[in-house]
Amino acid sequence: MTTPVIELREVSRRYDNGPPAVHEVSLTVRPGEAVAVLGPSGSGKSTLLNLIAGLDRPDTGTVTVDGVRVDRLSEAGSALYRRSKIGMVFQFFNLLDDLTVTDNVVLPARLAGMARREAGRRAAELLQLLGIERHARAYPARLSGGERQRVAVARAVMNWPALLLADEPTGALDTAAGEDVSRLLSGLHAEGQSIVVVTHDLGLARSCTNRTVRIADGRIIEDARSQEATSQEGTSRTVASETVTSRAVR
Ligand SMILES: Nc1ncnc2c1ncn2[C@@H]1O[C@H](COP(=O)(O)OP(=O)(O)OP(=O)(O)O)[C@@H](O)[C@H]1O
Ligand SMILES: [Mg+2]
After folding, report:
1. pTM of the shown model
2. Which residue's CA is the nearest one to ligand 1's atom 26?
C-alpha cells in the first residue's frame, strides 16, 4: 500500500460557538487520485481545504499530508509545508496586486529555487495553455475575475506540487475559459497529479476527477469512485498532459 497523500482522521472544526463547519471527517486520498468535493454553500468545503493546506487547525482529529502531520506544524513549518508540497487555488484568488501576472505565477518556483529563466519559460507555457498569455505583464487589478482565476491556477501548478488543492477553480469562468482550466486539470490528473477540487461544476468533476466526495453540514455523506473517469482519458487529454505539464523544463 502506498502512503496516502491525504489522511484525515476524525477531523472537526467549529468557528466560535456555531455548529461544526467540519464534523468528524475521515478521508484517505491515495497518490494520483483526483477528488471532487461537492456540497451546498456553507457545507464546509473551503474549511476542509484550509485544514488540509494547514491554513487552519482542527479542534480535534489529525491531518496528515504526504507524511507530514499538518495539524502539528508551527506557523513557519506550515508556510514551508505549503511552499514545498501544496499548490493552492483559492476561492478568491489571493493574487499579489503589486506583482505582474508573470511574477505572481513564477513566485512559488523562485521561492523554491528554480532559475529565473526556467521559471519564466514554464510560466509562459502555463499562461498560454490557460489563454491569458497576453496579460503576462499586466497587474492583477487590470484583469477580469476569470482571468485572475486562471492566473491563480497557473501559480498553483507552477511547482508540480505533491498535492493540488483548488477551491472553485472555474467559479468565475465562462465556458471557454472553464474548459482551459478543465483541460489543464485533466492533463495533470492523467499525469498522476493528486488533486482535491471543490466545485459546483459537475462537468469539471466528471472530466477531471475519478472520485466524488459529497459534503453536507460538515460531514461526508457520499464518497464514490468512478470507473468512467479513469477509462475515459481521451486523446485530447493525453495531448494536454504532454504539452501542459511537460516536465522537460525541469
Ligand atoms: N472565518 C469564519 N468565521 C466564522 N464562521 C465561518 C468562517 N468561515 C466559515 N465559516 C462558517 O463555516 C461554515 C462552512 O463555511 P465554508 O466556507 O467552509 O463553506 P463552503 O462549503 O466553502 O461554502 P461556499 O460553497 O459558499 O464557498 C459556514 O457556516 C460558514 O458561515
Ligand atoms: Mg467555499
Report:
1. 0.87
2. 41
